[in-house]
Design goal:
The chain is of the alpha+beta class and 540 residues long. The protein is built from 19 helices and eleven strands. The strands form three sheets. Strands 9-4-1-2-3-10-11 form a seven-stranded mixed β-sheet. A two-stranded antiparallel ribbon has the order 5-8. The protein has a two-stranded antiparallel ribbon with strand order 6-7.
Length: 540
């Protein structure tokens, strides 16, 4: 064809241009497969904002840069992780708690934390690179890199902290719930709870430490927990309780037929059993790592008419470190609490903690608050110790636990001992979820109920039985007895007056009260104490 013909050809009849490499993909995207926004047209602010959004909602950076399949896959993975987190925080709480009390599961949890953190970091870095224009100035690159580094640090540090918590938790389980621990009163080869209606745990506060010979358990509380409902009743026994009995089938009953006796009154009190019993009769109960606790489990169980399943001992010697690790505790003080002092010798206290609401205490002050007894009763101290434990629980918020868990776990290993086997921890997790939402009552065996020097243990057992079954219908009056119920002040005489063929005199109503009553601020009592003035101290 001539050149003239080409010049006269209509414009619409021009031959097609040769294909340009890469245009077939562009045509497909134009036909509905999605079109990517050219990175060069995206501003630096948009890149930075999308990078942050991608760190919060995985996959958004890939979707914004046109990588829809990858973005959708990453987003689906993110939604699955969120759903799993929501499940753990709601219906899966119990399962998560069980994982935390199993050393083997904690290893997998730790591995999962590492994998999750690395995946999160990979999403942030690759998402940023997908958004970055091909040609970027050094200032833009430097600013973007700084943001990515900050996001990576924001991911890595919490993951590191959670990882340290998992490691510390595994160490705590290995240290406190040792597999090779021996006990004369626990058989860990059977189902820990089985068909039991109640689980009874002996809670001991050991007042050992520098300048003290051995450990004296000045705090003795039995927590009786209903396995079906979690309803808990705390039975507090005074430290000066005498003649602690032992079960008839125990070798201790033959050694102490009239109750525990270590040769003198002061060394035969309840708080001396833990130390003096094993010292006088080593090995009498067989192989055990804590014979003092086994002595108390058998004796306290017999006194209350309960079978004590396990014990937990907290040694107050390391108590102050626990409080300091939590950053202190807050308690109400209703009267002057002595710091040191010796009631036996009459040596005056060094100082006093003054009355006042919501007092913030460090570890040393909290220990003084829990221990002080000069000029006060054992029951006052028992109340304060329960309040101190409550304050510790209140101070243990999730953020504090996360930040201080390593120190808390190490301190706990130093001051806590127990014979609860690892095989029972899953059951205790289930029980803890019930207790959390159930009623907790407290019965204190003070002088209004018993005389610690001459305790009527039959009366004690009746009070315990009635406290654990408050709704039980009263037995019909026996025709052989016309004895009216004894008044609280006549309880001892009534108990002694029981004879064969007569209905036993019912015990006084157990003063079961909410455990928080003794911990509330009493402005009237506090003002009365302040008006009376601080008691004398050793320094004047």
């Amino acid at each position: 064809m001539s050149d003239d013909a080409d010049l006269t050809r209509p414009i619409g009849d021009a031959p097609a241009l040769p294909p340009v490499p890469g245009t077939r993909g562009a045509e497909r995207e134009a036909e509905g497969h999605g079109s990517r926004q050219r990175p060069e047209s995206r501003s630096l602010v948009a890149v930075l904002v999308l990078t942050v959004v991608n760190a919060v909602v995985w996959g958004t950076a890939f979707l914004a840069s046109g990588r829809r399949r990858l973005g959708a896959a990453v987003l689906v993975l993110f939604l699955l992780l969120v759903a799993g987190g929501v499940w753990v925080a709601t219906a899966g709480q119990r399962t998560a708690a069980r994982l935390l009390v199993d050393s083997g599961s904690l290893t997998w949890v730790l591995a999962g934390i590492v994998v999750l953190a690395l995946a999160w970091i990979a999403v942030v870095v690759t998402g940023y690179r997908s958004l970055l224009p091909r040609r970027s100035s050094r200032p833009r690159l430097a600013l973007g890199a700084l943001l990515v580094v900050a996001l990576v640090a924001a991911i890595a540090y919490p993951a590191y902290r959670v990882g340290t918590v998992a490691v510390a938790q595994r160490g705590l389980l290995d240290g406190v719930f040792a597999d090779d621990r021996e006990s004369a009163t626990v058989d860990d080869s059977v189902d820990p709870f089985g068909t039991k209606e109640r689980v009874n745990v002996l809670l001991l506060g050991g007042d050992g430490g520098e300048g003290r010979e051995g450990v004296r358990t000045d705090t003795v509380i039995v927590a009786s927990i209903a396995t079906e409902t979690g309803v808990t009743t705390l039975f507090s026994l005074p430290r000066n309780l005498e003649d602690l009995p032992f079960p008839a089938d125990s070798p201790l009953a033959a050694i102490y037929p009239d109750g525990f006796d270590a040769g003198s009154e002061s060394e035969s009190l309840l708080n001396a059993v833990y130390r003096n019993g094993p010292a006088q009769h080593p090995g009498v109960l067989g192989a055990t790592d804590d014979p003092g606790a086994d002595f108390l489990k058998l004796g306290v169980g017999e006194a209350l008419g309960l079978e004590i399943d396990y014990f937990v001992l907290v040694n107050l010697d390391g108590f102050s470190r626990l409080v300091d690790a939590l950053g202190g505790i807050t308690v109400n003080v209703n009267y002057y609490v002595p710091v040191n002092g010796n009631p036996g010798t009459g040596e005056l206290p060094d100082a006093y903690i003054a009355p006042g609401p919501d007092q913030r205490m460090d570890g040393t002050t909290a220990l003084d608050f829990a221990r002080g007894r000069f000029g006060l009763t054992d029951y006052d101290r028992m109340d304060r110790q329960r309040c101190t434990i409550t304050a510790i629980i209140d101070a243990a918020d999730p953020i504090t636990l996360l930040e201080q868990y390593q120190e808390l776990a190490a301190t706990t290993q130093d001051i806590v001992s127990t014979d609860i086997p690892r095989t029972a921890l899953d059951d205790f997790v289930d029980l803890a979820f019930l207790v959390k939402d159930a009623e907790v009552r407290s019965v204190v065996f003070d002088t209004s109920l018993i005389d610690p020097a001459y305790p009527d243990y039959d009366l004690v057992r009746r009070i315990v039985s009635d406290s654990l079954a408050p709704a039980a219908p009263a037995a019909p009056a026996s025709s052989a007895s016309s004895t009216p119920p004894a008044a609280p002040g006549d309880q001892a005489a009534g108990a002694e007056g029981d004879t064969a063929g007569q209905t036993p005199t019912p015990p006084p109503a157990a003063p079961a009260a909410d455990v928080g009553d003794a911990c509330a601020y009493d402005p009237v009592r506090a003002q009365e104490a302040l008006a009376a003035g601080q008691p004398p101290t050793r320094n004047g």
